[in-house]
Amino acid sequence: MMKNFRNRIKQVLITIFWAGCIIGIALLLGASITNHQNLFFKSIKVNIDESSGMLFLSRYDVIDFLREDQINIDQSKPLHWVNYGKLEQAIENNPYVENAELFVDADGNIQINIKQRTPILRVINNRGVSYYLDEHARKMPLSSKFTTRVPVATGKIYAGSENENTYDSVIIKNLFVVASFINSDPFLTSLTEQIVVNTEGEFEIIPRIGNHKILIGDTSNLDGKFEKLQGFYKEITTHGGWNDYSLINLKYENEVYCKKRTSAANMHGTARAKSNNVNKAASQQKFSTNNPN
């Protein structure tokens, strides 16, 4: 009987203990909610992630466009009156914001953490309309406050940013594929100044160094094409240097076709030549990238 009595006492004590824990937690939560409701807004603290080097937004820009959206927050307003959903939506509607997170700290400050969008390409079409493509292939406007250094796409790009046809839509998608590949490689990122859509709808790269064009054709096998380019640059130092060539053609598998630059003396000789085909053959050079057996 004593054993049963002890077990009952033990069960009662355990029940009382857990009941006390639950009541204590409920009291703490109630006190926390009451305390939060009694808090008044103190200030907005804006934290903008600039780790990617993007400087499209400042704290003052965020405060200004909140005012423009008629979101008025003043120090006389209790925090539980603040419409956080509307506040967050207004921030994320800004074209330079990737996402925004809001929370209230213990001192009654509204903390806003903002991640900016990251452009990887600037597009200029034939109408002079210019915009960025970000890392998710979404368009974003240029900024009057900040210009990021990304490759510029020009050439046979006809559509405006709000009026595309099927051809131009495909071109933009393929430009994004090329720009994304370039952006993923430090060497190509430092090399590429401009991407040109030529009259054939193929892609050419204008490098920051040298005085030549790099023809990559379509977006197929970009890994292989740019691997050939790096191999060619290493080899070309033994053949006179980059400035001897006006065009580096990467379109063909396992080979790099190069067009030699024509000097003034060579141009005079070319004018007197009897066969254009002979001159063309003399001005081109082929580098094989096949691995030896």
List the helices and strands and how they pair.
Blueprint: H1 2-38, E1 44-49, H2 59-68, H3 84-92, E2 97-104, E3 110-116, E4 119-124, E5 130-134, E6 139-140, E7 152-155, H4 166-183, H5 186-191, E8 192-197, E9 203-207, E10 213-217, H6 222-236, E11 245-249, E12 255-260, H7 264-272, H8 276-283, E13 284-288
Parallel strand pairs: 1-3, 4-7, 7-8, 10-11
Antiparallel strand pairs: 2-3, 4-5, 5-6, 8-9, 9-10, 11-12, 12-13
Order of helices and strands: HEHHEEEEEEHHEEEHEEHHE
Percent of residues in helices:
25-40%
Side by side, the strands of the main sheet go 6-5-4-7-8-9-10-11-12-13
Q: How many runs of DSSP E, i.e. beta strands?
A: 13
Spans of at least 5 consecutive residues whose pLDDT stays below 50 are 264-283
In round numbers, the mean pLDDT is 78
| CATH level-3 fold name of the largest domain | Rossmann fold
The rounded Rg comes to: 32 Å
- Please, how many helices? 8
Q: What gross morphology would you assign? A: elongated
CATH architecture of the largest domain: 3-Layer(aba) Sandwich
Helix and strand composition category: alpha/beta
Report the span from N to C terminus. Answer: 93 Å
- The total number of structural domains is 2
Sheet with most strands: 10 strands, mixed
CATH class of the largest domain: Alpha Beta
Percentage of residues in strands = 15-25%
